[in-house]
Automatic annotation (TrEMBL):
Cellular component per GO, a single term: cytoplasm
Top-level taxon: Eukaryota
Organism for this UniProt entry: Hypocrea virens (strain Gv29-8 / FGSC 10586)
Protein's UniProt name: Uncharacterized protein
Pfam families linked: adh_short (PF00106)
Family label: Belongs to the short-chain dehydrogenases/reductases (SDR) family.
InterPro entries the record matches: Fungal_SecMetab_SDRs, NAD(P)-bd_dom_sf, SDR_fam
CDD domains: carb_red_sniffer_like_SDR_c
Matches recorded under PANTHER family: NAD(P)-BINDING ROSSMANN-FOLD SUPERFAMILY PROTEIN, SHORT-CHAIN DEHYDROGENASE/REDUCTASE
One Gene Ontology MF term: oxidoreductase activity
Amino acid sequence: MVLQNPTVLITGANRGIGLHLCKEFIVKGYTVFGSVRPASRDDASVEELKNTGASIIELDVTDEDSIAAAFDSWGDKTLDILINNAGAPPPPRMWNEVTSEALIDKFRVNTVGPFLVSKAFMPALQMSTNPKIVNIASNSGQIAAKTDGKYMAYSVSKTALNQVTKSLGMQMEMIGSKVLVVGIHPGYIPTRLTKHVGPDKMEVQIPKIVNTIRSLDSSQNGGFMDAEGNPMEY
């Protein structure tokens, strides 16, 4: 079901995938809110986000007080789609470069952050007739289908994000909530996070992702999929 003038909130919206998702949802007629970290408020990328027509929310996914303040500023508005896009980059690459700080940092941003934002904004999502939480996942988090072990800390955090997606989706069903929770692997798109390398094109993947989000249904709750909505192995 597609709502009239639905509202979407996208975290990490001032660059890369988040910025392009904002642009595409605005083209589709959505009311779009994009989050930026308070530390980035003076960055030129924030001005680019403003120019899309999106409303700006300051939110740091690693700071619970910041998340709470962002929700307070949200007020009594309904939220139809929450896209947890903010993420930490893949490096370090090899096991002997991985430190406890690197593991914790990736986990805090890529796993804990999406959960805490989802938890905080749940009251606004529950007001929607067709609420969706979309976690921007990665095939780096796959276990069964994974063919290499590079970027261990990043992969561990994305594997844990898959479990958050699955568990939260199932718990929404348990309590009779309408909130649908899925993880989407966007493809390997060149962004600052990937040091601008990757075989997939932004202009190809973003419309696919948006179309997939718009067409999600309850049978996909807790699922992990690619940009076109095809199921992927956890």
